[in-house]
Amino acid sequence: MKKAEQSEATRTALLQAARELFTEHGYADTGTEDIAQRAGVTRGAIYYQFRDKAGLFYAVVEDLNQSVAQTAVSAIQFAQGEQEGDLWDQTIRAGVEAYLDATMGLAVQRITLIEASAVLSREENYQLDKKYGLDPIRGVLQELMDAGLLAPQPLGALSHFVLNMLAQASLYIAQADDQVVARKEISAFIYSFFDGLRVKN
Question: How many separate helices (H) and strands (E) can be counted in the chain?
Answer without folding.
Answer: 11, 0
